[in-house]
Amino acid sequence: MNIFKQFIKQQSGDIDFVTNFVWKDAVKFVIEIKASVSGFINFHNCYGLDNLAMHLGAGRETNSSSIDYMAGIFINKKTQEKVNANEMVLTLYTNINNVSEFTTMAKELFTIEQFLPLINNIIYEIMQ
Asked: Is the entire prediction scored with pTM above 0.90?
């Protein structure tokens, strides 16, 4: 973070904006997606995260679509991480009033498994 602050200072930027930034004040809607049960997180649709981010306003559907630079997703828990019931899994930030649809979309991106989920190895062989 210190290097980032130096970078901002060298460009005559406002370091206080970065240091004291509060997300909940930057967007109209902060949506907390919590675990319904205890277990292990298993994200099974990373393309869905991209699609959700676009709908939140953080990406473009077409070239003429605008981007809301304050919109986005914070991933509180990652795949294979233990989670307790009512613990935060995702935090969504948006200025679009569509909370119920965004909540549904987010909950479809992961499951909570009783046992540690296996991750498929995407590297099958290292060629030399």
From this structure: no
Query: What's the burial of 57, exposed, middle or buried (CB within 10 Å: 0-12/13-18/19+)?
Result: buried
The structure tokens listed for 18 are 């970065």
What domains can you pick out in the chain, each with its CATH number?
28-113 (3.90.1170.30)
| Main-chain dihedrals φ then ψ at residue 33, nearest 5 degrees | -100, 115
In three-state secondary structure terms, 121 is coil
Smallest CA-to-CA distance from 71 within 53, 51, 94 is with 94
Please state the φ and ψ torsions of residue 10, each to the nearest 5 degrees.
Answer: -65, -25
- pLDDT tens for each residue of 103-115: 999 999 999 999 9
